[in-house]
Amino acid sequence: MAENPFFAPSDLPYELPPFADIREEHYLPAFERGMAEQLAEVDAIASGTEPPTFANTIAALERSGRILDRTATVFFSIAASNSTDGIMEIEKEVSPQLTRHSDAIRLNRALWARIKQVSTEDAEESWLLEKYRDDFVRAGADLSEPEQDRLRALNEELSTLSTAFSQSLLKASTESALVVTDPKELDGLDEAKIESLRKDDGTYVLPLLNFTAQPGLAQLTDRDVRRRLYELSVGRAPGNFGVAAKMAGLRAERAALLGFPSHAAYTVANQTAKTVEAVEEMLGQLVGPAVRNAKKEAEALAEQAGFAIEPWDWPYYSEKVRQARYDFDGSAMRPYFELNRVYRDGVFFAATKLYGVTFAERSDLGGYHPDVTVFEVLDGDGSRLGLFVLDPYARATKRGGAWMNNLVDQSFLFGLRPVVMNNLNVTKPASGPTLLTYEEVNTAFHEFGHALHGLFSQVRFPRVSGTSVPRDFVEYPSQVNEMWVTWPEVLANYAKHHETGEPMPAELVEKLKAAEKFNQGFKTVEYLAATLLDWSWHKLAAGESVADPEAFEAGALEAAQIAFPLVRPRYRTNYFAHIYAGGYSAGYYSYIWSEVLDAESVEWFKENGGLTRANGDHFRGELLSRGGSIDPLTAFRNFRGREAGIGPLLARRGLS
Ligand SMILES: [Zn+2]
């Protein structure tokens, strides 16, 4: 049997993982050897006889665990994008082991004693040293032995529950899918879409996407089918309610052990928000106006429908109002949004204009699935920058949503250039070109904003590479990149009819912009309701247990004054993967928190002439290239020239 491909660095360009050689049976031995190797390295650091220095302690820790890092990076990328029963089994087995492993390092007393003695004059080193100290304290390094034992048990149980939550959810997207036998029931969806849903047994299966308001609700003309789809969506994976309540309780207990009144307080302490009060003050300014806007919209929808609408009618009639009031039909845009053109002549084009980078497809380099494409990214002077890997299509083995992840972290320490990837969940047509919706185009630009943050990283240490910034900051650069979707020069370059090559009519763009203002109330309320739900679960104090999670959810929304039966949270508790299976617990507020910086930055670009190389270079130099190597709000100030204010955000959301 050939050597396990994880045991040595990849010899492909940019150390792209050798996907063609990786088989499922490689993961467990690689995890095992990776953890053992890192523990031995850490023991050597902790038991060193030389006085502790930055080089022999912090930099040495940064150098440790290479096999584990390579293995985990590939494994979790595959577990998200191309999971199988075998991968799910491995994940179940390995998740608690990884938690134990990370605790074994962070709760190593000899190591912690040495870290506390390190000092350095260098600014980048000193920032990293502080990060390490904070990581260790937050992981329980200062607790007593019995407290650490309890902490280890809590972490392990949380990791097992989180895996269970995410796996039930992945199963629910197809197990709770809408199934019809008569295609007439799918009236409203376009024919290619209907065809793509047909199964061998003659049924049609519409899988659930991960949020409450399924896109089909905007098109399905049969009201009862809409109701069924909606009820399947909000009721999926019901066992997850109990898992979520359990997790919230364990997180509260862990926060108390670490000296915080709640998991929310613990979580925000190392974010740019820093305190629970700061987050609540901001959310407080948004709730009232958002609910008022949504109620106004509801009246317009009821008028359009001619009856009192239900939540499953909202997207359908909001589409109708947009057509009637703004003469705008969202589906009229799709022929102008062909996937390849959107990337090559839109997403990449904007990046070339701003940053001088160019993209070349590398068909000699492959991914883990035939639909994955690899691009080499060259800098303005022709030098090699990194790889961009794109996996655009939905499949049963991929989790919902869209995201960016790194396959190789940039760092000068290892002399590595970044390999970053974007995942989308676009339905692959049975044949012909892939035409995107406007929302999908927006998502493509958004995720590519994260990719640029990873690609432009110019830092010494992997711990602070690229997007390794606080969660309530990380969405900011990606949100800024959305501004180019409708930027005239960019749009004119990519939005061309897939058959005729005709540019998108200017009036369609104008109508889109006008129509976008409608439904902002809905979007803000569904987002804020999810945020406040996350917040309520994670403000529980230790010992407060929740016997009836659905009642808790309803009560939390009521108490936060965001309860509005026609607009449910974007995610209910049972499918809120961000907070129970992702890294966003007590952190869903981050999107709107980052949007303050985003709105300020968009204003800056507009004030300074928009899509220019000079503007791009300024943003890249002060912000994108810094990764997490300096204080994020300092980086923002260096870019913007002042502190951020909430004004531009309120104006944008129609809340001022
Ligand atoms: Zn994002």
TrEMBL record:
Residues 218-652 form the Peptidase M3A/M3B catalytic domain. Its cofactor is Zn(2+). It comes from the Bacteria. Transmembrane segments: none annotated. InterPro entries: M3A_DCP, Pept_M3A_M3B, Pept_M3A_M3B_dom. CDD domains: M3A_DCP (cd06456). Keywords: Hydrolase, Metal-binding, Metalloprotease, Protease, Zinc. Binds 1 zinc ion. Belongs to the peptidase M3 family. This is M3 family metallopeptidase. It comes from Nonomuraea insulae.
